[in-house]
Amino acid sequence: MEGTRFADRLQGMAGNVIRELLKLTQQPDIISFAGGMPSPDAFPNEVLSDLAEELLLTKKVAMLQYGESEGYYPLREWIASWVSEKGIKASPEEVIILSGSQQGIDLSGKIMLNPGDKVAVEAPTYLACINIYKMYEAVFVTAPNDEVGLDVEALEEVIEREKPKLLYLVPTFQNPTGRTMPLERRQALAELLTRHDIVLVEDDPYGDLRYEGEPVPAVKSMDVTGRAIYLGSFSKLISPGLRVGFAIARPEIARKLVLGKQTTDTHASQLAQALVYEFCSRGYLKDHLKRICAMYDAQRRKMKEMIDLYMPKSIKWSQPEGGMFYWGVLPEGIDAKVLMKEAIEEKRVAFISGESFFADGSGQNTLRLNFSNSSIEKIEKGMKALAEVFNKYM
Ligand SMILES: Cc1ncc(COP(=O)(O)O)c(C=O)c1O
Asked: What atom in ligand 1 is closest to the CA of residue 104?
């Protein structure tokens, strides 16, 4: 509609590049390393179908009636006990169920940010967080990421100079780089939160997808002063379509998150929450994770093998021990967008250039490859074709 007077905050907001790309990659002849989706072979359809039937027939009202904004209590209890195995101490009351963990990013902006407030993010960071905090008219300040993730000393300088109110991080198998912050940096970060009185949004949707190496405890487990909001998700573990995630925060913050959620969508789907609860509490999750981790590990190894065999040696790649992504840094001056366009148009292979993951607009020579959504055969075929494009430019 011509002349519609939209809110000022929408100015300069582009559509989500990944969502736009995903539309294109739905064409059947495209091999896509662009999105961040689970494998189509990863979904536990039969078990969920049986559980859904049972739930709808035995909890006839609860499944279809309105529920509590805080979430389905049995699931909150189960999550509190599950995260205690990861060192996070939380009562069920401190666990708020969300319609996907992305809602937690949104709610953190909604409850914390006034227009013009500063948010510190890694460079690069999760693309959607940039758009979300822009919606709350935040100003971004960035801290650099090195081979093992966020550089905490550089972050402290940024904090002292810019005084951000909020810090958003994906410390484990980061999207987009796949990197994991080591323990010492997490400890330093936890101390820094207290020293500078800053709230951390610790987004952890990939932590349970580890294929090698030892787990590293969440920053939240070291957060003695309650300055971290921990976000978890069942999207990558069970199904993103169910839209079930959660936030863990100290009671004062949890109450505000609930207020924010009430004005957004009242509560997450009752049936989806109950399905996740039954799936997890009856022990299916454990075996399911074993199965999908073995599958993703094979895909990750295949992609690495193809990178080593065919990709130009001048590209620097991350070495993810889990998660869903490889991150590549091309030599300076090469624009990954040009390669992306050519790969899609000439080779029918998609990946995503890295620029949109940088809040400061840098990163033209970077890219992300997803390995979870493509079969071994597609990885083999797609990576060979992609390497032909890359070799042409390097
Ligand atoms: C870092 C990160 N946070 C949040 C999300 C969103 O997850 P959910 O489906 O739980 O909203 C994603 C999804 O790709 C992600 O990569």
From this structure: 11
Q: Is the pLDDT of residue 18 over 70?
A: no
Q: Is the pLDDT of residue 297 over 60?
A: yes
Looking at ligand 1, which atom is closest to the CA of residue 102?
Answer: 11
- The vertex-357 CA angle with 354 and 358, nearest 5°, equals 105
- Domain 46-283 belongs in CATH node 3.20.20.30: no
What is the pTM for the complete model shown? 0.96
Per-domain boundaries in the chain: 8-44+286-393, 46-283
Report whether residue 209 contacts ligand 1, using a CB cutoff of 6 Å: no
Measured between alpha carbons, how far is residue 206 from residues 136, 195, 237, 293, 364 in Å? 26, 28, 8, 11, 25
What pLDDT sits at residue 182? Answer: 96
pLDDT-derived band of residue 206, with 50, 70 and 90 as boundaries? Answer: very high
- For the chain, the straight-line distance linking the first and the last C-alpha, in angstroms and rounded, comes to 45
Asked whether 170 lines ligand 1 (CB < 6 A), one says yes
Task: State which ligand 1 atom lies nearest to the alpha carbon of 240.
Answer: 9
* 102 CA from centroid of ligand 1 (Å): 5
| 25 confidence band (pLDDT: 50, 70, 90) | confident
- Nearest-atom number in ligand 1 for the CA of 244 is 10
Q: Which residues partner with 329 through β-bridges?
A: 316, 366
Instruction: Give the distance (Å) from ligand 1 centre to CA of residue 235.
Output: 7
Average pLDDT for 369-373 = 98
Which CATH number, 3.30.1490.20, 3.20.20.100, 3.40.50.620, 3.90.1150.10, labels domain 8-44+286-393? 3.90.1150.10
Q: The tokens of 366 are what?
A: 């970077």
CA of residue 133 to ligand 1 center, whole Å: 15
